[in-house]
């Protein structure tokens, strides 16, 4: 005699009750007919959801997205049809308390004949009369995998950056050192020294990019933004500006920040402005109630491109595009954010939102 999981429930209930993980049984119509105490405890769902049609009720209540519901339904249907004896579905669930959890659900067939029921066995031993679902929390594992993926992406980007941007100053230093050897002219060493300074700066950039903003150590102190911008400009942190380029400090103020990181951020922003604002650019730096801003009078950045250009690897001149990515990391390390917009003169404006003047 063929069993029905609803008509003869004792064995199905005993299966899920004995499991330490969250578990349940679906009947052939995908109604969840039994759940164990662990599932009730973890989800905090009411019986109307726990014993509803699955996944339709869970999706309707907003605990799963439509896409997750479709993936789950397809897996259950394969088990019910006898096409699979082991389906695993990774899902992100919003729990009853509003928190989210990533789980892996293992789906196996519940079969029965006139002699004995079989859970998770070979569907050929009898008709499939239901599905047993066992849920395990894999949130930590998934986060570790995501972190490893992010690390790999950073390493790949850094490899490209180091191989591309370091190659030029290294070649310059080597060339001038060779000339100095051949001519005994020590003046030839000055450009080599400049190239070595550029290499040191690039290595500092690479170290910033290699770390998550949360792990970047900051040593905050009062920093005069106007003085810092002027020093960046005069010392050529970003290269020599054109003779007719102009820096204007507007309303200089002091902010509390890590001086080295803030210098890298402002130096990169000034360098971007000088490079992309066209001939005879005017670069304005200041602090207002929204944060630190660096603006220019160039062509600006189209609104639909602003989000993309802040990403690592985006450059309009064949470089690696590390400049704004460095700024974004430096901002995040302070708890600020980088926003790109339009300056009052119609050019580009970069703003470190959250940097508050101290006086």
UniProtKB/TrEMBL annotation:
It catalyses: ATP + protein L-histidine = ADP + protein N-phospho-L-histidine. Pfam families: HATPase_c (PF02518), HisKA (PF00512), PAS_4 (PF08448). GO terms for biological process: osmosensory signaling via phosphorelay pathway. Keywords: ATP-binding, Kinase, Membrane, Nucleotide-binding, Transferase, Transmembrane, Transmembrane helix, Two-component regulatory system. One of its GO terms (molecular function) is phosphorelay sensor kinase activity. Its main location: membrane. Residues 99-122, 340-359 are annotated as: Disordered. InterPro entries: BphY/WalK/GraS-like, HATPase_C_sf, HATPase_dom, His_kinase_dom, HisK_dim/P_dom, HisK_dim/P_sf, PAS, PAS-assoc_C. It is found in: Membrane. Its EC number is 2.7.13.3. GO terms for cellular component: membrane. This is histidine kinase. It comes from Halorubrum aidingense JCM 13560.
């Amino acid at each position: 005699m063929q069993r029905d999981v609803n008509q003869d429930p004792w064995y199905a209930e005993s299966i899920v009750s004995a499991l330490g993980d969250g578990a349940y049984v679906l009947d052939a119509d995908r109604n969840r007919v039994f759940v164990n105490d662990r599932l009730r405890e973890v989800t905090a769902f009411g019986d109307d959801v726990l014993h509803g049609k699955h996944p339709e009720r869970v999706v309707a209540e907003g605990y799963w997205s439509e896409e997750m519901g479709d993936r789950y339904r397809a897996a259950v249907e394969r088990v019910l049809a006898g096409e699979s004896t082991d389906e695993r579905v990774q899902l992100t669930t919003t729990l009853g308390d509003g928190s989210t959890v990533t789980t892996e659900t293992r789906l196996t067939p519940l079969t029965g004949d006139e002699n004995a029921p079989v859970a998770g066995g070979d569907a050929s031993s009898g008709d499939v009369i239901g599905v047993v679902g066992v849920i395990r929390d894999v949130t930590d594992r998934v986060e570790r995998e995501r972190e490893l993926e992010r690390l790999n992406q950073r390493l790949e980007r850094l490899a490209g950056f180091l191989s591309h941007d370091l190659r030029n100053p290294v070649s310059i230093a080597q060339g001038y050192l060779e000339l100095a050897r051949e001519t005994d002219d020590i003046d030839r060493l000055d450009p080599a020294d400049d190239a070595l300074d550029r290499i040191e700066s690039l290595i500092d950039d690479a170290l910033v990019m290699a770390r998550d903003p949360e792990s970047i150590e900051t040593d905050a102190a009062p920093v005069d933004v106007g003085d810092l911008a002027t020093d960046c400009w005069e010392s050529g942190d970003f290269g020599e500006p054109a003779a007719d380029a102009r820096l204007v400090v507007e309303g200089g103020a002091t902010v509390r920040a890590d001086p080295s990181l803030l210098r890298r951020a402002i130096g990169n922003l000034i360098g971007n402005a000088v490079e992309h604002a066209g001939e005879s650019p005017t670069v304005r730096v200041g602090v207002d109630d929204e944060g630190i801003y660096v603006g220019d009078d160039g062509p600006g950045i189209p609104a639909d491109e602003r989000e993309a250009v802040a990403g690592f690897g985006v450059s309009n001149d064949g470089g690696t595009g590390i400049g704004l990515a460095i700024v974004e990391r430096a901002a995040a390390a302070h708890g600020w954010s980088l926003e790109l917009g339009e300056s009052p003169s119609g050019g580009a404006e970069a703003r470190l939102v959250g940097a508050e003047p101290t006086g």
